[in-house]
Structures are given as C-alpha cells and as structure tokens.
Amino acid sequence: xxxxxxxxxxxxxxxxxxxxxxxxxxxxxxxxxxxxxxxxxxxxxxxxxxxxxxxxxxxxxxxxxxxxxxxxxxxxxxxxxxxxxxxxxxxxxxxxxxxxxxxxxxxxxxxxxxxxxxxxxxxxxxxxxxxxxxxxxxxxxxxxxxxxxxxxxxxxxxxxxxxxxxxxxxxxxxxxxxxxxxxxxxxxxxxxxxxxxxxxxxxxxxxxxxxxxxxxxxxxxxxxxxxxxxxxxxxxxxxxxxxxxxxxxxxxxxxxxxxxxxxxxxxxxxxxxxxxxxxxxxxxxxxxxxxxxxxxxxxxxxxxxxxxxxxxxxxxxxxxxxxxxxxxxxxxxxxxxxxxxxxxx
Amino acid sequence: xxxxxxxxxxxxxxxxxxxxxxxxxxxxxxxxxxxxxxxxxxxxxxxxxxxxxxxxxxxxxxxxxxxxxxxxxxxxxxxxxxxxxxxxxxxxxxxxxxxxxxxxxxxxxxxxxxxxxxxxxxxxxxxxxxxxxxxxxxxxxxxxxxxxxxxxxxxxxxxxxxxxxxxxxxxxxxxxxxxxxxxxxxxxxxxxxxxxxxxxxxxxxxxxxxxxxxxxxxxxxxxxxxxxxxxxxxxxxxxxxxxxxxxxxxxxxxxxxxxxxxxxxxxxxxxxxxxxxxxxxx
Lengths: 345, 282
Fold this sequence. Notes:
The complex is a heterodimer. Chain A is mainly beta. Chain A has two helices and 25 strands. Chain A has a domain at 84-204. In chain A, strands 10, 11, 12, 13 and 14 form a five-stranded antiparallel beta sheet that branches. In chain A, strand 10 and strand 11 (160-168) form a beta hairpin. Chain A is globular and about 60 Å long. The model of chain A is unreliable at 13-32 and 107-114 (pLDDT under 50). In chain B, the strands form two sheets. A six-stranded antiparallel beta sheet of chain B has the order 1-2-3-4-5-6. By secondary structure, chain B is α+β, with helices and mostly antiparallel strands. Helix content of chain B is 32%, strand content 27%. The longest helix of chain B has 30 residues, at 2-31. Chain B has helices spanning 2-31, 49-54, 160-169, 183-187, 189-198, 213-222, 236-240, 269-281; strands spanning 67-72, 78-85, 93-99, 105-111, 115-125, 128-138, 172-178, 203-207, 249-254, 257-264. Chain B contains eight helices and ten strands. At the A-B interface, helix 1, strand 21 and strand 22 of A face helix 1, strand 1, strand 2, strand 3 and strand 4 of B.
C-alpha cells in the first residue's frame, strides 16, 4: 500500500474515531433506561382487589380476587366474570387452563375468629369454560397438598403438554411438593385430557430449605426465599428434583415472575428511602414504598421498571409476548392493573 | 509526507486513548449502578473495620448482617445500598453506599431514633479512614418511609420505638405480620394463636402498613377480627428485613434480638414449632 492511500484510509478512520467518541460520550446510555417500558393499558377493577393476580396468557384477561370471590377481568372492556372459589386463581403458562386451590374455610372450628384453611384439592378449569360461565372443573388433583401454586411447561408439542406444578403445604407441614401432568390437546390447542404422572407428589428440593418457590416458565430455574438469609435466590433443579443455587440476589424481594424466554425476572421490592442515604441525588420519584425491578439473567443487570411514581406497585407478571402486568395502588388508595409493553427487546 | 503521516497517527493514538477512556468510564458508570452487587461468595463487609472504629461504632464488621436494598438514582438507575442494624447504639441503622469517584468513597448514614448523621468516608489505607461529617438531621415522622396520602403514621401504629420496647420487655416471642389483602394470612392467625398459647409465648400481631381501610373493614367484619389486630407495622427495622414484601410473615425474637430465622407464607402449627426450635437454637 502506498503512503497517500494509507493517509486517506487513516483520515477516514480519524473521522470514524471522532464520530465514535461523540457517540460514546453520551454517558446517559450507560444508565438504566426507565423508558424501556411503556404503558399499553390500564384497567381499574370494579371491586378492590386482593394483592395477588395473574394475566391469562394470549388473552386480554387477568385473574384476580376481591372479597371472597375470584374474577376474570377483561382488560380491554372491563367486563368481569365470576369464577369459582376465593383465592389464587392462577392460569397455566399456556392459555388453556386456570388452576384454583379448593380451600375449605371452617369458621366453626375457630370459636372466636379466624378460620383454618383446609386444603381440598387443586382444581383445573378450562379457560374457555370459565369465560362461558361454566364452573365445573376439567380436572381435580388430590395428590398435591397446599397452595401457592406455580407452574412450568416442561415439554410441549402439537398434541401434548407436560405441565409441572409446585405447591407449598401449609397445613401442619412446611414441605414443598411437585407434580407433573400430561395434558393432551385438541386441534385448536384446547386441553382434551389430563392425568398426573406420579402416583404421589414428589418432594421438591429435599436437599435445601426454600420458601415460596416460583418456577420459570420452562422449569429451567426457580426463585425462592431462603428463610435463613431472607434473600431471594435463583436455583436450578436436577433430574432427581434436588436443587442447586444459581444466583443470590442478596436482597429480600416480593414474589418473582420469569419472562417466557427465561431472560428476565421481575419482582417488587421496597426501595431504600432516599432521605436515609448520605449521597444526595435528585431522584425522579421519592414517594413510593413498593416498586418493581427487573433482573436480567443473561447480563446480571438490575433495572427499575419505574412507572410507579407516588404509587405502590406489586406482583409483576409476564405474558408470552414479553409484556409485563402489575397491580398499582394509587396515592388515593384506589387500584388499577397496568399492562406494560417492552420497547427494547 | 512522513511528517504529516506522523501527525495523523499521533492524533489517532490520542483519539484511541480518548475512546478507550470514554468506553471504560461509561462501563464503570454502568457497573456501579445497574450491575449485580458483589457476589455472595465475596463475603467482604461493605465497610472496613477501621471506618467503624473511626466512627466510634463498637460492632465488629464480621458480626454485622447486611441487607442489600435498591435505591433510585437521578436517571432511573439502580443504586445499591447496604443496610444493617447495630445491636449497640439503641439499634441504630447503618446505610452504606459505595462510590468509585472520588476513589473508594463510602457514603454512610447512621440513623438513631432521634437523628440521622451523614458521613463521607475515605479508607485511604488499611489503617486509616478519613471521616467527614456531611450533615445531621433530626428524625421526624416526616423522615419516615410511610408518607403516601392516606398512609400517614398514626399514634396507634407500631413504630421502631414500640419494637425496641417489645424486645426489651419480653424475653422471647413472635411477631406476625398479616394483610387483609392476602387471604392466607388471615387463615394463619388461628394456628399461630394456638402455638403461642400452648408455648405461653407473647404474640404481637401487626398489619400491612399499606392495607386499604375499606379492605380492613370488610375482612375484620367477615372474620370477626378484633380491632387490636389492625395495628399497622411502621417499624422500619422490620421493613428493612422485608416485612412488607410477603404476607404473612413471622419474626421470632429472643433476649432482645430478632432471630435470623424468618417464615414466609401461611404455615401450620408444625412448621411454626419447627421455626421456633431453630430460632431458639441460634
């Protein structure tokens, strides 16, 4: 290469460097971007909701509880449908079913107040049946004790799904249990037939103590509270259902939900009060006590979802298209469900 | 020609250095904000002993149990703040934030029941920690974290002062946090009361500080709950330990100290018994 050509090449490189310097100089790029999410829709339920709710995948519906009833709320129209029972109606990670523990409140046992939540069975309802007002369960499982159910799709093809459910027993036992189900599908992907794969529920993580586990949608990970450190930790599970620590988030968090691609986790936390911190910065929002963060399992980055100014936001939950729902308790103590769309994938 | 070529390459080198500097600055800005905090296997205390000594804090860093809590930065970034409760100094709360600029600076606040002191610390060598008092603020109810409209602290609420008194007055006991918004937390009241009665343990029942008044009325009526069960937990010390993130949750205390053993979620009598045994053995 002769010298003038080299100089010409270097000159263009020079321009590239200046341009690149300008680009890199934008320091803001290095920070988390609260504009990563935008509000797609909000809907105030007709009745004050309990805290826990879940979206029904690939549908405009969310399930929530108010008073002593479970509901499906259409986020687009505001229409509400009564569904059976009164706690934790949790849809499966595919649209087909909604699971609801049948608890028997026995107020007469407690002479003055309270009730003993007796576990009856885990009931599986076809989502389409519930939308039509039908209240007959499609399947009942009496092998799996407890509640706080969480689910993963272990295997999926056109005519079959293997669904895993984990529950925590609370009636005089503290164990976490696991059951797998084979669900045969119709041509339209609605559930046709269902059976348990184990005669008795398996003990979940017999080698370690965990509380309130939440499975990732593929079953690859689960997050649970370590009752000794109070930290939320992420674990993996081997073929013998033994569990292994994958990551310690080193902080207490609310219930975790994983994105369908296993890349993001969302949870609510209690942000530190800025007035308690010596290094002063002007923050965008000082007034909320519960807010939502995401943790990226691939990059290890934490980010604020940051849509909860002067409100408290709870129980984030992903949908298959990557959207994120949460419940917002506003400053005037009213509630709404919020659906966020992710701008950056 | 040779001269101009030399000039160009020198200018390129300067730019390359500048680019490298900017890339590394941007990266360090990122890692100091959003990246995961130091890994758990690196169990180093966020503050060196020499700095605690310089602040006349008698605790040993190896004995302090730190909780990481996220904070909010000016551009929506995540700040990582380590907090702990000192057993001396009347249960004061220490909050520490690390900053890489200026080099190895720690920003520390020491919050007692009466005031908050803010410091800048520079551990310049293993034997020296330079302490600068930034400011002092009297602690008022407005400093409290519970200041949303409708959630202002009332005299009946359970505060850090009440917690201090409880730990001082009773040798051991259970603190139970429930929420009218979480049905299982109502259901767990009865087995817990049974255990406390059998073991003759004092039981302090506190409610979700953010519970909605309408929901409280509805649930207390439905289950005939006495109003004494609706005392809101405003003790920041419990809040620091994740008291508002799950309901129900159980704290156990013994000899003036809250046990590290904590239960989350609804539990039957057997599980509560087992947790009490574990708490007693620590």
